[in-house]
Amino acid sequence: MNHSLKEMVALVTGGTKGIGKAIADRLSNAGIQVIITARTAPAEVTEGQYFIQSDLAQPESAEIIAAEILEKYGRIDIIVNNAGANLSPGGGFSTLSDEHWNNDWQTNFMSVVRINKALLPVMIDQKSGVIVNISTGAAKLPVWEMTMSYSSAKAALNAYSKALANEVATHGVRVNVVSPGLVETPLMLEFIQNMAQSSSVTQEEAYQSVMEKLNVPLGRMAEPDEVAGIVAYLVSPEAKYITGVNYSVDGGALPTI
Q: Pfam families given for it (predicted)?
């Protein structure tokens, strides 16, 4: 991260907590003007950040966000599509309704497609821009009893990201993916709590069950800032020859290199 990033404008969706907040704060500290979105307004917005309240699962949200950013700042240099969640119950295919599938795909895939579609024309006109789509290790290593519909939506995001990277590279726009594994965020802790309640076990037992299923060699969950670090690198000039790549930040959980 260096002085060349200052005065750039970045959008970080889902930027009020967890991984998104860590990314937004890292970019703000580099001098970038950061716009964050979330369904719920934070108690306090960090200095140097601008908040837009929005539910990205709603199709009209992307155009509204894009219009506000362009009216206020007139440009967009970085998009970090971080907003996403594993919204469906565990238990496998028989527990998942059409509504569960639709919610996961709207939140984790179509929301990204719409944001990029709304803002990419500006990047193409500028002949510069960087997009980082936040996926998950579960897209390559799905856990059927916990992440079936979520994993499928994120797997689609991976394929879409590679195709988009190839399409817009000649316009000076780079697209990459970061795939975290287990990260200690409020959403993850809530997921473990719900898993404990539904399985009638303690939270510690549920935590250990998740760790054992994913077999993390480093033996712990990541901190959000450990994901933010690779995102900060990818949007910087140091990564100007990197596009169409998916980076795993999973403590070694993916069993292939």
A: adh_short_C2
Instruction: Give the residue ranges of DSSP H helices in the chain.
Output: 18-29, 61-73, 98-105, 111-126, 144-168, 186-199, 203-214, 224-234
Give the Cα separation of 199 and 145 in Å (integer): 12
Model pLDDT, residue 4: 67
The C-alpha atoms of residue 71 and residue 198 are separated, in whole angstroms, by: 47
Structurally, how many domains does the chain consist of?
1
Q: What is Dmax (Cα atoms) for the chain?
A: 55
Residue 151 in domain: yes
CATH number at residue 245: 3.40.50.720
Answer whether residue 192 is part of any domain: no
CB 251, CB 183: distance < 8 Å: no
Q: Looking at residue 219, what is its pLDDT?
A: 87
Polymer length of the chain: 257
Cα angle 92, 95, 96; round to 5: 90
Residue that the structure tokens 């889902």 belong to: 14
Residue 254 lies in a domain: no
Query: Strands 9-13 and 78-81, how do they pair?
Result: parallel
Q: Mind listing the pLDDT tens digit for each residue in 195-250? A: 788 778 898 888 888 888 788 999 899 999 999 999 999 999 999 999 999 999 99
The answer to whether 56 touches 50, Cβ cutoff 8 Å, is no
Q: Which residues are catalytic?
A: 150
Which candidate, 19, 78, 46, places its Cα nearest to that of 226? 19
* Residue 203 to residue 201: CA distance in whole angstroms: 7
Range of the structural domain that residue 32 is part of = 3-182+223-249
Place of tokens 């719409």: 114
Q: What whole-number distance in Å separates Cα of residue 105 and Cα of residue 119? A: 20
CA distance 243 to 130: 9
